Amino acid sequence: MPTLTEQREQIFDSFRKWGYLEADLDPLGLARRLSIPELEGDSEEHHAARSLYCGTIGVEFAHIQDAARRRWIQDRIEAPAPAPDRARLLERLVSAEVFEQFIQSRYPGAKRFSLEGSTSLIPFLDETIEAAALHGCRHVILGMSHRGRLNVILHTAGRQAAELFAGFEDVDPRSVLGAGDVKYHRGATGDFRARNGADVHVHVVSNPSHLEFVDPVVVGRAYAKQLRAGASGRQQVWPIVLHGDGAFAGQGVTAETLNLGSLRAYSVGGTLHVIVNNLIAFTTLPGDLQASSFATDVARRAPIPIFHVNGEDIDAVARVAQLAAEYRATFASDVVVDLVGYRRYGHSEVDDPTITQPVLYRHIKEHPVAWKTYAERAGLDAEPVVKAARDGFAAQQKEAGKFAKIPSMRKLPGYWAPFFGGRYKPEFEVSTPVAAEELRAVGDLLTKYPAGFHVHPKVKKLLDQRLEMSRGQRPVDYGMAEAMAFATLLRQGIPLRLTGQDSRRGTFNQRHASLVDTETEEHYLALEHIGTGEAWCEIFNSPLSEAAVLGFEYGVSRDYPEALVLWEAQFGDFANGAQVLIDQFIAAGEDKWGLLSGLVMLLPHGYEGQGPEHSSARIERYLHLAARDNFQICQPSDAAQYFHLLRRQALRKWRKPLVVFTPKSMLRHPDASSPIEAFTRTHFRPVQREHEVAGASRILICTGKIGHELRAERKRIGDATTAIVFLDQMYPFPERDLAEALAQHPDAHEIVWVQEEPANMGALFFVLPRLERLAGGKAVRSVKRSASATPATGSAKAHEMEQQTLLTLAFSLGKD
Ligand SMILES: Cc1ncc(C[n+]2csc(CCOP(=O)(O)OP(=O)(O)O)c2C)c(N)n1
């Protein structure tokens, strides 16, 4: 027979595990409450446990493996709730509600994505940041989408209502022609004055329409800011991400981002995820949005607590805010808060929800606003608070008319001061060669490892070769060129971060940034011991994600402009798993938001008979996105070009994303290796000319591996009249360099663009019109695979035949 205490514990344990399923979470009282057999019973213990676990707070924590963490939550839920500051909570709630109504009445028809029905978000954030400030928080990086954004910018980021109202006034459209973004996407920075006197700097991150894709960017930005802050970084910088319930449940990038939470390469000591749960997405109800009862279920795979709270019980909302903040501060863990409310009007202000949810909206129409209910329950007089809010906004509206154009509510941190974007100018170039002595020195450092470290014999051989490369005793391959670029930059004080799937060793066994002890599996990263001053180095294997990890690294690059931040795709083909990040942030961030990034994307590319999904990094996609010098698109044709390209990227102050198509089979190929002099003397050349053939009658222009194959073919057939030019930088298009390369062969009668990709892919569409402009009337032709729905054939034999046909055609096309 269990003792009475044991019986009590059993009952309480059931409620700790299942109680949230019966909790009273829906302010409208419409959601069907589950009935869990394990919770049935009418004993005193049942009542006691039910009042704790099935009230307006429901906590999911039984899935957390760590008993100490479960105990922490249990102790707090089972202890009396701390007394809330009701006057303050009411004031925040009223202000949030009145703000929305004020815009509705003064700017009818304008889209603002009202927060009404979920305005408890504002007191929630208030209490969260208050609690965070007590734990040392001084920076909040806040990501969110459309819903309630203006309200958050006002009440949480501390901007003036006048600035927001100005966004609704007519402005001169010429200031944003062809660029800019809508008001509910733009970022904002401000200060939150906490009651303990601390100023917490709040930054609302600019985001695109694409829901949830800002999540990893927020976390990456927080990571970079924490690195800057040093040992107390995690205490000082807190990421908070707000989600819609539909988006949180539906978008895969949320799951990817949650997975980053506890990985060493990505951990920020906990992100607070807050679901502004209005139980609807546009016109779709939860039953069609998610497989389970809760939008939060995707988070249950992580060992993190999920707090559900009825958004109309403002005291409970405040309590959950404090619990969430304290949990993050105590365990450096992610926390999910599900703030359940409703949506008072349509998806946006121009949308009528009674067409799709007529019954629900009849209920909503009758439902009193949250501040009225709260004031009544708390015995507070809300009228003076409402009046003060209205008067305040009316005064702010008068101020709004004074702005000549939409005010920028954002301020870039000081570390961006030395860097700039805009159009390319040759004067931005810097010197990238490195003295031979320095290369010898880094060669020594890169090939050394601690005494007693057992290196794999194959790796030992590679290190011996690398030592010889650094001394000019053998040509330098890509792997060593990259290591030397990284090492020389680190020694110049440039921090470095590289992540990607299997990037430490390198997918093609080429990098070996980290040596693995054959006896202990301990790792040794020589590059970590090379930097000077502030130059830290991080090289990590990423999880098997593209979107979240690319978003994260973009975020890091946004807050560490002086670092070289690189993300590597396993094969370039897989980068389209992160297409939203590429389209919405990397290509468009500067145009939409004036925000720069020096992120490098390394995309292995090349037709080597490996099938449709291991051949093409889709050069065409990047070229389609290229305009106004928004990024750089390059394919270095040899190791030294790669070295100078990386160094140029880090050393120039012109901050632009760099897309690099990197080699696979050419990684160690002698034709693409470079003599040491190419590292000590030259710089990156957008157009690589050769000097073998002078006064050619035909010029082949190409980029990447095919160029080396063309050279081999030319040798094989003994052709002495065809010149081969490599286009190592496709964008910004190096028109002048190419014109000079063409001018080298004034008698050439034909210019041929040769590419491995099918006719509907590759750089063809981009290069051809430009070549025609430069050709001065000469014939411009092209050699490519036939247009195809897939990038490459699945048959290695067919590939060989196709490749040989390309080479044959390249040397015969146009010849009589
Ligand atoms: C990736 C993506 N797909 C579709 C949309 C179009 N869209 C905009 S808002 C919305 C509904 C969002 O619902 P929810 O996440 O619950 O947030 P709510 O608007 O209810 O606050 C949809 C489908 C989008 N913005 N992003």
Strand tally is 22
Main beta sheet, described?
8 strands, mixed
The rough form would be described as: elongated
Q: Report strand %.
A: 5-15%
**Unreliable stretches covering 5 or more consecutive residues:** none
Distance between the termini: 101 Å
Query: What fraction, in percent, of the residue positions are helical?
Result: 25-40%
Topology readout:
Blueprint: H1 4-18, H2 44-53, E1 57-60, H3 67-77, H4 86-106, H5 121-134, E2 139-143, H6 149-155, H7 161-166, E3 188-193, E4 199-204, H8 214-229, H9 233-236, E5 237-244, H10 245-250, H11 252-260, E6 272-277, E7 306-310, H12 314-331, E8 335-340, H13 358-366, H14 370-378, H15 383-400, H16 436-447, H17 457-470, H18 478-491, E9 496-500, E10 515-516, E11 523-524, E12 537-541, H19 547-559, E13 564-568, H20 579-586, H21 589-593, E14 600-604, H22 619-625, E15 632-634, H23 639-651, E16 658-662, H24 677-680, E17 687-688, E18 698-702, H25 705-717, E19 722-727, E20 729-731, H26 735-743, E21 750-758, H27 764-774, E22 779-785, H28 796-812
Helix pairs in contact: 1-2, 4-14, 4-15, 5-12, 8-19, 16-17, 16-18, 18-23, 19-20, 25-28
This protein binds thiamine diphosphate.
Thiamine diphosphate binds at residues 147, 209-211, 244-247, 276, 278, 280-282, 347.
